[in-house]
Amino acid sequence: MKIGLIMQDFKFNINLNDFDFLIGVDRGALIAYQNNIYVNLAIGDFDSVTKDELILIQEKSKVIKLNPIKDLTDTADALKYAFKLSNDVTMLGGIEGKRIEHFIANLCLFKEYPLLKIENENSLIFCIKKPIRLPIKYKFASFFALNTVKSLCLKGFKYELANYDLELYDSLCISNEIICCDNLVSFKEGLLLIILSNDDH
Amino acid sequence: MKIGLIMQDFKFNINLNDFDFLIGVDRGALIAYQNNIYVNLAIGDFDSVTKDELILIQEKSKVIKLNPIKDLTDTADALKYAFKLSNDVTMLGGIEGKRIEHFIANLCLFKEYPLLKIENENSLIFCIKKPIRLPIKYKFASFFALNTVKSLCLKGFKYELANYDLELYDSLCISNEIICCDNLVSFKEGLLLIILSNDDH
């Protein structure tokens, strides 16, 4: 089952028909309705919506209301729920927005949920433990280590790389270009964060 | 000497009179001129501006033109130059923008330049090795470990915390509220990333 989490900065510019189950995270649930999208479930403390808006959300779908004083973010709670149902979970949005700390908190979630994907109209973020070929529908690929990635090799990219040990906080592998559909990202061990993106012009 | 690095997503909504030396990073230099701001130096490979725009930049200020095929990002090169001149360096912008991988690359720079500050109209990002009181002109404070932060204590915040070991990828300390000007962030060891932000409504 393919699950999508709708975040409040999501622009509804990705085809949602592929998803079997949609979860609106806090204000994301309201924004879904405003875009005529039905969500199967809304999760949040809903401190970012008014009382009337919450009533509207409750009329439209099942709601799990979290205590605003909690250790997990709304997103982390929604993910916990989603990964109980399926291993195929995509966060829709959660990248832009003025409160950039939320994006960092979302990146932290990869440690607990390495199968998570984060997607918006310009970017796809995910992490891998095994070699992969990247889809050429994206122009740029960036690679960061979530823990040390041993012997990283990049083939079929503008800048090829052989047996490089990528450490945490190393930004060497930012903005490479995917040249060839027969490309290959391989490494011996570690957890590799990949960000695919398109041109920003 | 207080140095400001103008990034291409900077909105020119911060008073720049405090800065003694401004560096335009790649397209940031062009955007400075378009906002009638004089930069002392422009650094970049300038692959994000046209030939004519580069000529305009060169007419207005000293330029260091980097080879587009390089291991460091334009920003990392500009920072290297800036920290040779001063320990007081602020990146202006570098937070928003569609290419979110650039923001992650900017965060990676804290490991090499722990004195760096990143600022835009809504957020101030910096890291500390010693206790600090936070300015109450910001509403929210978020804390992430760049390496394990031992015995983190938060006083004068909405959610107080005592002797918590904050690990990498732990998002427990996101979006705390600064309640009191006599607040205190203290810890025994580690490198703590702090993001101060205002409301996004």
Secondary structure topology:
Two copies of one chain form a homodimer.
Chain A (H helix, E strand, L loop, with lengths): L1 E5 L14 E5 L1 H8 L6 E4 L6 H10 L1 E4 L8 H12 L2 E5 L7 H13 L4 E3 L3 E6 L11 E16 L5 E6 L9 E2 L6 E3 L2 E9 L4
Parallel strand pairs in A: 1-2, 1-5, 2-3, 3-4, 5-6
Antiparallel strand pairs in A: 6-7, 7-12, 8-9, 8-10, 8-11, 8-12
Textual characterization of the structure:
- 2 copies of one chain form a homodimer.
- With 201 residues, chain A is α/β, with parallel strands linked by helices.
- The first copy, chain A, has 2 domains: 119 residues, Thiamin pyrophosphokinase, catalytic domain (Rossmann fold, 3-Layer(aba) Sandwich), CATH 3.40.50.10240; 72 residues, Thiamin pyrophosphokinase, thiamin-binding domain (Jelly Rolls), CATH 2.60.120.
- Chain A is 21% helix and 34% strand.
- Chain A is built from 4 helices and 12 strands; from the N terminus they run ββαβαβαβαβββββββ.
- In chain A, strands 1, 2, 3, 4, 5, 6, 7, 8, 9, 10, 11 and 12 form a 12-stranded mixed sheet that branches.
- In chain A, helix 4 links the parallel strand 5 and strand 6.
- The longest helix of chain A is centred in the middle third of the chain and has 13 residues.
- The model of chain A has no long low-confidence stretch (mean pLDDT 92).
- The interface between A and B is large, with 39 and 39 residues.
